[in-house]
């Protein structure tokens, strides 16, 4: 179950959507489990660890007792490759989360993609600092590592200092996360003194890694692998290996070995290199549809079966994918298309900026215009004049944020992605000077 920072109503919606009848949770999340299962079809709750204070309801079962009482008879349950294996909910950064039905085939082929592109072995040790309900942690880390026979170190919460300590203690070779987690790690006071010599591979998804973060790791001989994917692709679609991290800076890489990528226009016709359009994906790692959402399933596939990502991007002449932005995040100002990610990457070059999100806000003249929400790094300041001076000459005038709002914190999903729709809602309700 997710962490305590998200609302129980979100969990309740997903539990009801999935039709779950059994809920398995830790003692720490008993309160959330109780609230999140209220009014749903959950008739059975199972605790995976003993309650410290004995406050768990009497009707809650204990996993260790269930295991102790079970028979030793081996059950051979027939499973077909196309049978559903797990329902994973999308992050919901642009709308309500949908339950992606991942089959056994989907997660197996995704693991094969990872093992082809990344150097994992039985001696590899992965530290999972992202939750396993997030498809990247499960599909790009845990499952391929276990398939190869490596070791997985699981953490219930992310803490930058503890992550550094665990890397040194367990001689971790593989670490994956989002740009925010990697930034927090390299800015932690323990960063300079921690032995990171065991690390061989860092994978980062969700968005591009800021140049200063990339520099901090490369100065210690730690190059990044990047990539692009989503829950619906189990989740890998492309990967950018370290040897291309500088020559193809900003790229999400090449398609995984068993996966194909194309860029298509609104009519579904493939576009030439350099032409932006919708990123579409095909392969055995792509889901067949959503749980109890037939209308969403139909809308998510082109007539010839390619999955429509809802993301805008282009392929260069070498076949490397470059992400422009989410289709739903694109700002249309005076008839011109503006991709927030382009603006955000330039703003992130400023040392004072910790996080940034650009969204469209209503405007009587232009329809909508860009607004930048900025979270500063501790101890830093940034004037609006300094920001605009940094952008002048690098962005067309119509792409320049018309307003800038400094925030103490960004609304995020449990996997660390910024919830843009929350910022858009705030932007509609407020009009800062």
Describe this entry's structure for a reader:
The chain has 433 residues and is of the alpha/beta class. The protein is 26% helix and 25% strand. It has 12 helices and 21 strands. It has an 11-stranded mixed β-sheet, with helices on both faces. Strands 1-2-3 form a 3-stranded parallel β-sheet. Strand 6, helix 5 and strand 7 (151-154) form a beta-alpha-beta unit. Helix 1 (8-18) crosses helix 2 and helix 6 (160-170) packs across helix 7 (179-186). It is globular and about 70 Å long. The two termini are 41 Å apart.
Concise structural overview:
The protein is of the alpha/beta class.
Structure characteristics:
433 residues; alpha/beta; 11-stranded mixed β-sheet; 3-stranded parallel β-sheet; globular
Map the helices and strands:
Elements: H1 8-18, E1 22-25, H2 30-37, E2 44-47, E3 61-62, H3 63-69, E4 84-89, E5 99-103, H4 104-117, E6 125-128, H5 135-148, E7 151-154, H6 160-170, E8 174-177, H7 179-186, E9 201-204, H8 211-218, E10 224-229, E11 236-240, E12 251-255, E13 260-264, E14 277-282, H9 294-299, E15 307-315, E16 321-326, E17 331-333, E18 336-338, H10 340-347, E19 353-363, E20 367-376, H11 384-391, E21 403-406, H12 420-429
Parallel strand pairs: 1-2, 2-3, 6-7, 6-8, 8-9, 9-10, 20-21
Antiparallel strand pairs: 4-5, 10-11, 11-12, 12-16, 13-14, 14-15, 15-16, 17-18, 19-20
Helix pairs in contact: 1-2, 4-5, 6-7
